[in-house]
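Predict the structure of Sigma-54 dependent transcriptional regulator.
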Amino acid sequence: MGHEILIVDDEPDIRLLVDGILRDEGYETRLAGDSDSAISAFRARRPSLVILDVWLQGSRLDGLGILKAIQGEEPAVPTIMISGHGTIETAVAALQHGAYDFIEKPFQSDRLLLVIRRALEASRLARENAELRLRAGPETTLSGDSSVIAGVRNQIERVAPSGSRVLISGAAGSGKEVAARMIHARSRRADGPFVALNCATLAPNRFEEELFGIEGMPDGSGRRTGVLERAHGGTLLLDEVSDMPIETQGKIVRALQDQSFERVGGASRVKVDVRVLAATNRDLQEAIAAGRFREDLYYRLAVVPLRVPSLRERREDIPALARMFLRRAAENAGLPLRELSGDAIAALQSYDWPGNARELRNLMERLLIMMPGNGTDPIRAEMLPPSVGQGAPALLKFDPAADVMGLPLREARDLFETQYLQAQLLRFGGNISRTAGFVGMERSALHRKLKQLGVTSDDRGGG
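Done. Here is the predicted structure for Sigma-54 dependent transcriptional regulator.
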């Protein structure tokens, strides 16, 4: 999406001149000749940048007054002040009240365009830094080499540039927000804001205020922008959208249709250009049948459905993910990196991970910080929490004190091979080809061995 610039000047010739310069460079523009029309235009749809004349003939507010109003509502929008009667004091006052720069008339078009580019870039960097501070280290890529996650990444690459709305489904902690961030980062709106609203954490009586904002008083005091307005030019993620109150669902349907809405307490409609993504861990068709979710909203959100698989559906990704989370935790905590032993990896791959990737990440961080012993010692299976270790393959819980010495060699060997192959099948979700590759056998030979031992590919028990 192109940047939109609001040009405010009381001289029509100046407005048209600047308008022509900016449009030739691919910018979108809106024009205003006095303070009331300027503030009205700003509130109707937030621009990317404002070019503002200091002296406005016959206007209720001069440029500095407009600057104060703009900064009071949206300090993130950069403003460039221009004036043919400027003084050092005026320039200093403008900068003190939040202007990005001050340019004297007459100005060179190259100088104006350079300042605009710098202001927009500074605004983008400030927005990214603010988001990083609020969300320390958000994931931006769905990691893993499994075929299922590779398929999801391929779908994202195809849908991201299209601008279509996407409904992302998947269990809690599976990476739905990561998928949404990937879509945003690969879209034509990548330079715009990414705003996430978790519908499950809001009280119903506050929902519309967060979504649409509050109009406030006529002088601008008490006004607060909502997430739809803050996401203008970018992407809004409605996370856990099934928790949105049914009363609000009707209003968001109209907002999606018209790309406009009314703030709470307001009478005029605010226009926005926002790509809306939605995420849910519930079956929305069941919610529709139960009357908890509007069918028309579902079809507006689910233009392209995208499902993020649970971690237990891609067990082969667990070793790489666990090591990545360990490495990041070590970097953040300033601790030495610890390796995962083979038995620990097998145990991790055998666990069902109800909390998905989020649970794995939290466990790796906890293990790195809390595990006793030398910082270079590997993390072994017995160091894992009981909830993780109890589902480990029988081989990992083999009792060395058992009377294996009382068995003939053939029976002892068969017992070991049975438990070993059960462990590896469990580790790779019953996938014969991947198990064969790991254990170093031909696929047909592994089939014969499993048949001989009486082990089935979906056997999850101990031997």
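The chain has 19 helices and 14 strands.
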